[in-house]
């Protein structure tokens, strides 16, 4: 079976191209896709969408009814396309790739910052300023805490990882000593 990202890419790219000039804006489509992805991630919804007793029209109606945001005709058509091609459950990957395309168009990127301890806004701001100089992009930080890092931070921007955590330094020392 193909990777989910490989399956999701054509849908994300096609949707992105079709809504680039939409008056609603890319941000509203990004929010809608995020909501659709959340609904598609619920286990009971996943089970219902794979129930062989439901036809495509019933799946579209059921799924659309679970979405709080009113759906435009274009959004409903997109859901119908996904249901018709048995790709509705790939929505989380489609949403992620759509956001990547949106960020690239805006000259921004998502910076996933993982810290051993909670960071205040000033600390996050200092980290982001340094990262923006390094990457030459406007970054949108998403901060999480992982005590397993022991100290320091790990930053993921796109496919690049900067690991300045104590955990990574200890692993490098272990590897050096074992060699």
What is the second-level CATH architecture of the largest domain? Orthogonal Bundle
- Describe the main β-sheet briefly: 4 strands, mixed
Structural class: alpha+beta
| Average of pLDDT | 93
- Topology pattern, helix = H, strand = E: HHHHHHEHEEEH
- Would you count the extended β strands for me? 4
Percent of residues in helical segments?
A: 55-70%
Radius of gyration: 20 Å
Question: Please, what is the oligomeric state?
Answer: single chain
Supply the CATH superfamily name of the largest domain. Answer: N-terminal domain of the delta subunit of the F1F0-ATP synthase
Approximately how much beta-strand content do the residues carry? 5-15%
For the record, the CATH class of the largest domain is Mainly Alpha
The domain tally reads 2
> Which fold does the CATH topology of the largest domain refer to?
Peroxidase, domain 1
Q: What is the number of helical segments per DSSP (H or I, 4+ residues)?
A: 8
Subcellular location: Cell membrane; Membrane
Keywords: ATP synthesis, Cell membrane, CF(1), Hydrogen ion transport, Ion transport, Membrane, Transport
Main location: membrane
Pfam families: OSCP
């Amino acid at each position: 079976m193909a990777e989910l990202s490989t399956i999701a890419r054509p849908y994300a790219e096609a949707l992105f191209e079709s809504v680039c000039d939409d008056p609603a804006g890319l941000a509203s489509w990004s929010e809608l896709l995020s909501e659709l992805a959340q609904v598609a991630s619920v286990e009971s919804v996943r089970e219902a969408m794979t129930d062989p007793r439901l036809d495509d029209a019933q799946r579209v109606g059921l799924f659309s009814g679970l979405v709080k945001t009113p759906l435009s005709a274009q959004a409903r058509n997109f859901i119908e396309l996904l249901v018709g091609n048995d790709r509705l459950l790939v929505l989380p990957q489609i949403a992620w790739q759509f956001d990547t395309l949106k960020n690239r168009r805006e000259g921004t990127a998502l910076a996933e910052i993982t810290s051993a301890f909670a960071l205040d806004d000033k600390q996050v701001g200092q980290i982001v300023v340094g990262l923006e100089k390094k990457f030459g992009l406007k970054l949108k930080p998403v901060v999480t805490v992982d005590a397993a890092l022991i100290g320091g931070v790990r930053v993921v921007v796109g496919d690049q990882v900067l690991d300045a955590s104590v955990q990574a330094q200890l692993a490098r020392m272990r590897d050096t000593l074992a060699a």
